[in-house]
Each structure stands twice: as structure tokens, then as C-alpha cells.
Amino acid sequence: MNDSRAGFQLAHSNDNDALLTLSGAWVEAYDPGDFSTVSGQLHLGTATRLTVDGSAVGEWDSTLVAFLLQCFNHCREEGIAFDSRGMPEGAAKLLALATAVTPHQREPEPAQDWHELLNPLKLLAKSAEFMRESLAFTGEVTIALGKLAAGKSNTRFEDFRLFCYEGGPRALGIITLTSVLVGMILAYLGAVQLQQFGAEVYVANLVTIGILREMGVLMTAVVMAGRTGAAYAAQLGTMQTNDEIDAITTMGISPMEFLIVPRVLALVVTMPLLTLYANILGIVGGGIVAGGMGITPLQYLSQGEGALSFVHLGIGLLKSVVYAVLIAIAGCRAGINASKSSAGVGAAATEAVVTSVIYLIVADAAINIIFQQLGI
Amino acid sequence: MSALSPQPHIQISQLTMAYGSFIIQRDLDFAINRGDIFVIMGGSGCGKSTLLRHMLGLISPASGDVLYNGRNFTRASAAEQDVMRRRWGISYQSGGLFSAMTLAENISLPLQLYSAYQAADIAEIVAYKLALVGLDGYQDYYPSEISGGMCKRAALARAIALDPEILFFDEPSAGLDPISSRLLDNLIVQLKESTGATVVMVTHELASIFEIATNSVYLDADSRTMLAYGDPRELRDHSEQPVVRQFLARGDGNDNTNNGATACAGGGQELQGSNP
User: Fold this and answer.
1) Contact at CB, B137 and A343, closer than 8 angstroms
2) Considering the domain boundaries, does residue B275 fall inside one?
């Protein structure tokens, strides 16, 4: 039994023949040395035939066959005839198996230079393409909604109900937490400034208007983007991976009507309701802080009531509908376009959240500027 | 490696599998010898894959034990189970390749974790394992870029990365065309012969059962226990259980010893009968 370290020796018996003698134990713990020494020496000679002798090999495992395979492939590339003798029986069989198919050559992909990647024109073209696709998707959703209104749609009411439940009542817990805290944050922020003028009681105005117009709906939207938008992307991405979307299409059902419309509608219905809920809790949260500063609940409420107007409430609710559409479209679009792998599903969920948050902020700014200009 | 150890390589002992109070299979008791190609067969929904998952320790049994080399796997601690699993190679039904990794990364992962190879050697071993399944040159492809059959073969390459003692297959040829499926069978046999591994596979592909299996167990969905144990060719012709004979003869012929001609004739008659 030969249990020494693995080794090999190359000898040129004459100009054309080379003999590679292997010895020792070819197992993973012993490093047999680098194959490049063999290939280097083969280059120096003019060998046209390489014979590998394995009769001195002791124990062996994949290390041996991997080495032999490298020899074989090198010989194939260089046009040298390859021969082996005295190999352990199993190793010879495995080598035959491994060399049955010639290695696949991948066509080289055109290399992309970094300056190509950072080219502002390319980046601009890319975002223009993204915008175009998003608009096209929005258009398709609109057409599907039109069909629904005409009563010729394959949308199932059952799905819509389910998504309403998923996106509505089940989100109440987290919305409760965020909106109370945001109300408190707003109150603290205002209170410190207003105290300087002895006008603490106006905290109620600040909180009421701030929550109704801006923060209540924005926080709800952010939560829904992370919760429901990402869920939509993951669901649709998984369906894409499972060929479910192909199945729906080949059944003659439009995925838009069957999958997207109920999701968009569910969010459009639940978001204003959640926003109303968040508004109430946000004002309560502000009241808690105000109470801590010596403003009685009655004072807080009557002061807040003065600030309360249907314009503020209406603007908040209008925003909630706009955000709902944006979140649903960003989520569904990312999911439908996901690539068919688990990594694709993850990327879709990320894209859904990132794009919907960007949409939210941009839309919020745009709406605020418009109403500012209109003087509402 | 003690190739001639008297005890069976794998021993299933009084195993009962259940989801809650719903019993899937009870009182399974059989042995798998070293070097066997052992097939777990049975109709759909009889618990074949569940049995495999019990053997892999992914589900713990309601009662009974699974022993490897005489050591109780079921009652071993999680750390001991991990050590025992290191000697196994597993190929899952839909491959189980990590889709976020290239084929090379998929195969090098177990090598990096559990072998003494240097980084440069790992690339060589990966090339060799891929060459064994006919996929050398596909190192930088992602599983989504290759066909289903290639994924199955790549999964096999990952399963044999560490030269395992036991190879588990869940439906290795499901979804493959007859030729690829046959090639895969040949590959399994040759790997077994050259490495001396024990192969355990779940399948109901009769062609591959008769071609490569050396021993088998038949799980019955109705009686919820094993009905037969032995060489499948033997069972097809001489099993005492009509259900088993029927299964192995593709449903036709109670007493006929099924050869291709009679099966075809039977099929033809049925077809004629159903024609209006």
C-alpha cells in the first residue's frame, strides 16, 4: 500500500512520447502540486503522445480524477494523444465518464466598459425607457379598469375581497403604532417652538393640520408600500416563476384583469380608510403629548376642531387614492416583470418598495406645489 | 471504509410517519445494504417523498428510528446529525440548486465548507464534477439559464461534490425525456460502481426501476404500510400482493408476466373498446 504524498513525474522517453508517472495517495488532504508544471514541461518538448501511468497510485479520490481530467483537456486542446494505463479501475471509469462530452464553450459576452455604464446619455435613455414602460403598464391597467366598468372583465370579486382583507384589517396594528408615534413626534416638534411664545395650545392646530394634510397619509403610504406593495411583487414574481402567469394567459384570461385589477382596486379602497384611521390616531397621539404639557383634552379638542376643515381632510384623502394607485402599480409591475428565479422574486420586491417610495415622495411634492399655487 | 461490514448501511426500524394525527405510513421496517441501488416506490401520495424526508432528518418520525451504519440518526443530536449528513449527497425533486448562484458556486459551496481543498483545487474539482455529468464549461451559468434536464444533472454534480457514501434522489428522472432519463440512470449506476456509494431513490419510473434497482420497497397508500420488499424484477413476477404486481406491470395483467408485447396488445384492445 502506497500511502505517501501524491506526486507525479514527467519524462520524455523520445521526441514524441512523454510519460507521466503518478504515485502516492491522491486524496484531498495531500496537495499533489500544480498541473501547470506538467503543461509547462509538455510545451518545452515536442511530445505528440502523453501516457499517464497510474500503477503506483495508492489511495485515491476526486483529486486524482480531477487531475487526470485536466491532463486530458490540456492534451485535447494541444492536439496531443492521451493514453492512460495502470489506473485504479474506478478512476478509469470515472475519467471515461467525465471525458465523454467535450466541454461547452460559452460565447464571450461583449465587455461593458465602466464609462459606458456611467454615460449620462445612456442613463437618461435607461430611465426614459423605464418611464415609458411604467406608463405603458399604467395604460394597460387603465384599459382593464375600463373593461371592468363596462362589465366585460374577468376580474373575480372574491380576489378583490381577499386583497382588501389582506391590505386593510390586517394592517391596522402596524398603522396604529406608526400613526400614534408620528402624532406624538409632530406635537413635540411644535410644542418646543410654540412654548417660546406661550402659545402651546396651538399644538392642536399644528397636529391636526399636519396629520390630516400630510403625515397621516404619508406614513400610511410608506407602511403600505413596504407591506402590501412588496407582497404584491413577491406574489406575482412567484407566480411568474411557477408559470402561473403563462397559464392564465393561455387560458385566454388577461393577467391585467385577473391579477392586477383586483390588487389595484383593493389598495384604492383600503388606503383612504386606513388614512382616516391613521388621522384619528395621529391626533390622539398629539393629544397625549399635549396632555403632558398641561393642555387639557377638552382644550386640545376644541382648539383642534377650530383647525379641522374638510379641505385638509379632503386633500389627505385625495393623496391617499393617488398613493394607492402608485404603490399598487409599482408593486404589480415589478412582480409581473420579475425574472424566473428566487433571486428574481427578491429583486422584484426590492424594486417595488424602492420605486413606490420614490413615486410617493415625488407625487407628494407635486401635489403640495399644485395646491400651494391654487391657494388651497 | 469497511466495505464488508455485516450490518446494513441504512436500517429503517418500526417507523411510523404522521402529520399530526393523520398517519401516512406505519410500521415500516426494512434494511438497505451497502452498495445497493434502493428504490422507494408506490403510487402517488403514498408517502414516498415523505419517507425520504424522514430519512434525511427534515421531518422527525411519529415513532420508530432510522439507523445509519448501526448508529441511530433519529435520536442523535442536531450536531451529530449534521456530521452524519456530511457523508450524504442529496438531489431534490426540482434540483434544489441555489438560483442566485452560478453552477460553479453551487458546487463549490460544500467543498469550501467541508473539504480540505485549496481555492485553486476547488475550481479543478468543480470542473471534474461538472464533466462527470456532461456539463463542463457551464461553470458560469445560472440555473435559470440552463434547461430542466441540465439542472437535474447539475444538482447531481453538487450532490457528489464531497464523494458521498450515500446518494439520495427524489424523482431523479421526473420531467426528463426518455433519453436524458436513461443517461441519468446510467450515470447513477456508473457513479455507484466507481465510488461504491449506496443509492436511495424515490421514483415511479418503471423503466428505470427495472434497469438499475437492486432492491426496493413498495409503500401502499390504502393500507398505509409497506407491502413488499425485494428486487423489483422478482416482485413483478412473484409478489404475493396483486397490487404490487399490478403497479410493476403498469396496471395490466394480473397473472401475466408482462413483456412488452402483451402490454401493447392489452393497450390496443382497450383503445379499440373505447372507440365508438
Assistant:
1) no
2) no
**B3 lies in a domain?**
no
Three cell numbers, residue B167: 446518494
A72 by Cβ neighbours in 10 Å (0-12 / 13-18 / 19+) ranks as buried
Cβ of residue B194 closer than 8 Å to a chain A Cβ: yes
Q: Evaluate whether ipTM surpasses 0.95.
A: no
**A37 reaches B (C-beta below 8 A):** no
Nearest CA in chain B to A65: B128
| Chain A residue with Cα closest to B1 | A59
Range(s) of the domain holding residue B27: 10-249
Q: Which long-range contacts (CB under 8 A, 24 or more apart) does A356-362 make?
A: A356/A225, A356/A229, A356/A326, A356/A327, A356/A330, A356/A331, A357/A222, A357/A225, A359/A323, A359/A326, A359/A327, A359/A330, A360/A218, A360/A221, A360/A222, A360/A225, A360/A323, A360/A326, A360/A327
Structural domain count, chain B: 1
Beta-carbon contacts of residue B228 (< 8 Å; ≥ 6 apart):
B216, B217, B218, B235, B239, B240, B241, B244
For B123, name the nearest residue in chain A, comparing CA atoms only. A66
- CB neighbourhood size of A87 (10 A): 21
Domain containing residue B108: CATH number: 3.40.50.300
Provide CB contacts within 8 A for B1, sequence distance 6+.
B165, B196
B184 interaction partners in chain A (CB closer than 8 Å):
none
Residue B266 belongs to a domain: no
**Minimum distance, in Å, between the CA of residue A86 and any CA atom of chain B:** 16
In a domain, B256, yes or no: no
Taking CA–CA distances from B144, the nearest residue in chain A reads A341
> Could you tell me if B138 lies within 8 Å of chain A, comparing CB atoms?
yes
CB contact under 8 A, A99 and B131: yes
CB A103 to CB B131 under 8 A? yes
Q: What are the pLDDT tens digits along chain A (376 aa)?
A: 445 777 888 887 777 788 888 888 888 777 666 777 777 777 766 778 888 888 888 888 888 888 888 888 888 888 888 888 888 888 888 888 888 888 888 777 777 777 777 788 888 998 899 889 989 999 999 999 999 999 888 888 889 999 999 988 999 999 999 999 999 999 999 988 998 998 888 999 999 999 999 999 999 999 999 999 999 999 999 999 888 988 888 888 889 999 999 999 999 999 999 999 999 999 999 999 999 988 999 999 999 999 888 999 999 999 999 999 999 999 999 999 998 877 889 999 999 999 999 999 999 999 999 999 998 7
